[in-house]
Design brief:
Length: 791
């Protein structure tokens, strides 16, 4: 094992003002001091678009709401050969629901992760529970700072004891000293000093201490309460300084304004230590029990201060055995009595200080750093590298493709046909059926009748065909699409795209179905349904129809209507390219939507059949551009995300990703490969198929080779755990296409072009490997309707 020479911390960092920033910076400094020669950088979160003047140890910045920043940070860490990542987790500093964006980063890392949990909730929301469990799963160990944290992790989250470490909050190593010298420096000579410090927010309970001051002053008239700290930046953004002003007004109303000092500043460590040193009593009157960690408490305790605190979790753990006083929540008289009692009893206060200082020696930053470093070494010895696409590596489909399994497809079918949706792997009858999916199923069934494949059960293919037949509305010359579970059609005619997709399936059946009677049925219905496509305005409907015409034309070569429609629809696609494509937007439309690759696929095939090299060249040009914009900087396939739908001339967004796009890209690239022999197209198809197997932005497998199921896609932070009809068909079609390709060309013998090479435009539509352009920046999102399947 190579020496531990490089670690990275993920969290916040100074000069951003928050407790996590202070802790992360202090921990990094301590670890570097404990191990000379160690390189330790910080990956920081930037809040609300803010920028900070970070020191050089900050190696990467993430805008908390930009999912792309998280994945690029992971790629950068992998590329830097960082040995261990130490995540500082706190709710509220990461983007996404409950901070879910951090999961996208963790999923891509190839090194072990050690996570420090600054908060462990006893009653999390469903989203908070899911995110924290995801963080825990991605971590080799989780660190908490108090025994209560371990208890909650085991009882609430089911974390095994051997994956939990308790390492207390670090503290500065400072000699035990009386407060007189610090009081002199700060101008508090001769006055008993009560201190609270940290970023101001309502949960800190400062109101309670202000309300207690009249009682304190009755017994110690010279006492002064110092409230040190700036208002929390998030609170300032929401309401300005209204909270601080309310505290000042409260002190005035209680008649103690002359004995309460508000110091509105974020002090450096030396100044902070001076204020703590000057304190006779430190007070943390927090209002709620669920405070797992308090850095202010740890620092004051570690400098040997007498502490009065409410019994939040960290205080209960730290102030046992006479090392401090615990008082009830929101009880000003009890706080006042405890503080006044300590100020009036020098011997008791000194004994409490001595106990606290002695008990805190294992918490000093040098000792804390050694415990972190020891844990880093342990997780490295235990670590088994995960299979994930490294930055700029070439994602690969498996050398041996999975077997074709049909268990999940069969589970999604009943005696009517294929159900649309699923809840997890259970068919969801509430949404019924659609001709879209049953036509795809018929297409799959006929495709699997090819030599070398294991056909679907004959009755199942017949059922898909019967659904298509029943969907035909002869009065309107259109196919219906949606049917309820009780077999009621929900519309008189479906969309143009569903009509075109059904023609595609019929064309395939007319040529490839082994049942001769069904071939004749498919050819007859195809030619009945074809004429209405002349009125269609959807480019995808044209493309689907053209794909059906390829098969129908082979099945019925003497038909005179089919060639006319092939020419008509192919010319329309070429016309769209002529009117829309520019130097940097080589596409048929002003936006990208779903099933995009079917348009260049259809144009390549139709152009070849028509003997129209210009059509083929346009199809290759469009596909070349699409492959480029669907390749992430890491080299993995990144299908056009549904967040992109409806946007105009904007490069695609990363999420949500769906299986449909991978399958379409595979088919189009293999069509290009058949037209010209350049192996770059086969490599692009292999990369798109690898998306199913886990070579994707989240390094999460979508396909289940054991059952043939496929998750419904990738959200920003997780896979969609539902496994609906469209997704299983997409995976099975993609697998069938890849199996056919490898039978024809060998087991990847022709795969020699690198995806880090560019598919360059060349005269006549030829394709040459050079260098793939980097993924363009994401576009601004607009809310649009997307035909996505939801979890």
């Amino acid at each position: 094992m190579k020496p531990l020479d490089r670690v990275a911390f993920i969290g916040n960092s100074l000069p951003r003002r928050c407790g996590i920033a202070t802790f992360t910076a202090d921990l990094r400094q301590a670890v570097v001091a404990a191990k000379p020669g160690l390189q330790a950088g910080i990956v920081v979160m930037n809040d609300a678009g803010n920028r900070y003047d970070y020191p050089p140890d900050v190696i990467h910045q993430i805008d908390e709401d930009r999912i792309e920043d998280y994945t690029s940070a992971a790629d950068a860490l992998n590329a830097s050969r960082t040995r261990v990542v130490c995540l500082q987790h706190e709710f509220g500093i990461f983007g996404g629901e409950a901070g879910s964006h951090i999961l996208a980063l963790l999923a891509r890392l190839t090194m072990p992760v050690v996570t420090t949990l600054h908060t462990v909730l006893a009653a999390p929301s469903p989203a908070q529970r899911e995110v924290l469990q995801g963080v825990i799963r991605a971590s080799a160990r989780v660190i908490v700072m108090a025994e209560k944290g371990r208890e909650l992790l085991r009882q609430v989250y089911g974390v095994p004891a051997d994956r939990i470490e308790i390492i207390p909050h670090g503290i500065p190593e400072v000699a035990f000293a009386e407060p007189d010298a610090a009081k002199l420096r700060l101008g508090f000579t001769g006055r008993p000093v009560i201190l609270t410090f940290g970023l101001l927010s309502p949960s800190k309970g400062i109101e309670v201490m202000i309300d207690a001051m009249p009682l304190v002053l009755q017994r110690c008239p010279a006492a002064i309460y110092v409230v040190l700290g700036a208002t929390h930046p998030n609170l300032v953004r929401q309401q300005g300084e209204a909270y601080r002003e309310s505290l000042v007004a409260r002190a005035t109303a209680r008649g103690v304004a002359g004995s309460v000092v508000f110091l509105d500043r974020f002090v450096d460590l030396d100044m902070l230590l001076d204020f703590i040193s000057a304190a006779d009593v430190y007070v943390t009157p927090y209002l709620h029990e669920a405070q797992m960690t308090s850095g202010t408490l740890a620092y004051s305790y570690g400098l040997g201060k007498a502490v009065v605190s409410t019994p939040y979790w960290h205080a209960q753990d730290l102030l046992a055995d006479g090392a401090g006083l615990l008082v009830p929540f929101n009880d000003a008289p009890a706080v006042g009595e405890a503080v006044a009692g300590l100020l009036a009893d020098d011997a008791r206060r000194f004994d409490m200080r001595r106990r606290a200082y002695a008990a805190s020696r294992p918490m000093t930053w040098p000792r804390t750093a050694l415990r972190y470093l020891s844990l880093f070494d342990r997780v490295r010895r235990e670590h088994r590298p995960r299979l994930t696409a490294p930055p700029l590596a070439q994602p690969r489909a498996p050398r041996v493709l999975p077997e074709m399994r049909t268990e999940h497809l069969l589970a999604m079918c009943d005696d009517t046909g294929l159900l649309q949706h699923a809840v997890h792997a259970v068919a969801d009858r509430a949404h019924g059926y659609c001709v879209d999916d049953n036509a795809r199923a018929l297409l799959l069934g006929c495709t699997m009748m090819a030599p070398g494949e294991q056909p679907l059960p004959e009755p199942l293919v017949a059922r898909f065909a019967a659904f298509v037949q029943h969907a035909w509305n002869a009065d309107r010359g259109r196919f219906r699409n949606f049917m309820s579970f009780d077999r009621r059609w929900l519309e008189a005619s479906g969309s143009e795209d569903s009509h075109g997709r059904t023609l595609w399936a019929l064309g395939k059946a007319a040529r490839a179905d082994v049942n001769a009677s069904r071939r004749r049925w498919a050819a007859e219905l195809f030619i009945q349904a074809l004429p209405t496509t002349e009125t269609f305005g959807s480019p995808r409907a044209w493309a689907f129809t053209l794909l059906g015409l390829e098969d129908y034309g082979e099945a019925v070569p003497d038909d005179t209507l089919a060639p006319r429609f092939r020419r008509l629809l192919a010319d329309r696609l070429v016309g769209l390219m002529a009117g829309c494509a520019t130097e940097d937007w080589t596409w048929f439309e002003d936006g990208l939507a779903y099933d995009n690759a079917r348009m260049p696929q259809a144009l390549i095939l139709a152009g070849a059949t028509l003997g129209a090299p210009g059509h083929v060249a346009e199809g290759l040009r469009a596909l070349r551009w699409l492959v480029r914009v669907q390749t992430a900087p890491s080299g993995v396939f990144r299908p056009v995300g549904t967040d992109s739908f409806g946007e105009t001339r904007r490069f695609p967004r990363a999420f949500d990703q769906q299986a449909l796009e991978a399958t379409a890209t595979i088919a189009a690239c293999l069509a290009a490969r058949r037209h010209n022999a350049d192996p770059v197209w086969a490599e692009a198809a292999e990369t798109a198929f690898a998306w199913f197997m886990g070579h994707n932005d989240l390094a999460v497998p979508l396909a289940d080779p054991e059952t043939g199921a496929c998750r419904d896609g990738l959200h920003r932070d997780r896979a969609n755990e539902n496994r609906g009809g469209e997704s299983v068909l997409s995976y099975m079609l993609a697998l069938t296409q890849m199996r056919g390709h490898r039978r024809a060309f060998g087991s990847r013998a022709d795969l020699q072009a690198s995806l880090t090479g560019r598919i360059a435009d060349t005269p006549g539509g030829a394709v040459q490997p050079n260098h793939l352009s980097p993924d363009p920046p994401p576009a601004k999102r607009r809310d649009v309707h997307c035909p996505a399947q939801h979890s």
